[in-house]
Amino acid sequence: MNRRTFVGASIAVGGAVAATSLASGCSTDEAHPEQQQTVQVNMRINGKAENVTVDTRTSLLDMLRERVGLTGTKKGCDQGACGACTILLDGTRVNSCLTLAVMHDGAEIGTIEGVAEAGRLQPLQQAFIDNDAFQCGYCTSGQIMSGLGCIAEGHTGSDAEIREWMSGNICRCGAYTNIVAAIATVAKKA
Fold this sequence. Notes:
Elements: H1 3-23, H2 28-31, E1 38-45, E2 48-55, H3 60-67, E3 86-89, E4 92-95, E5 108-110, H4 123-130, H5 140-153, H6 159-165, H7 176-189
Parallel strand pairs: 1-5
Antiparallel strand pairs: 1-2, 3-4, 3-5
Helix pairs in contact: 4-7, 5-7
């Protein structure tokens, strides 16, 4: 049997199996009910109560973006390496791509959409503008959320300390010096 015959036979067999499944009324979803489990998750997102039905395999990032419609939290690497998806979860900064939504029923979540108050930029947002702490802007929401966490945690004693505690957030444009300056400016006023 040569390669071409093998591939042709494989396609024919696969098509026959799929046709048989459809003819018998058995879908692949019914064959694997464990893949269809959904749960109701209750959270406070940016101060507002949200009840969201999610698949048990849904990351917190995907729930925020796709189910709640808060797209300010960015999907970068989807592996926890870039920090673009950083949010505040019960006051602690986390990479939302690395945690499942169902693990945080009852949690308090803060995203970039909830940072400004009454139409006024939060001081760190303004400091990012004043210090030119972003270029393309893709990482900015994660940088700001992580910066807020860094300030709240008290890790702003020096530029070196800020760099260390912000090291989980990658800026491909290289605006690190200005990001550190923005965080340091706000930390001094806090």
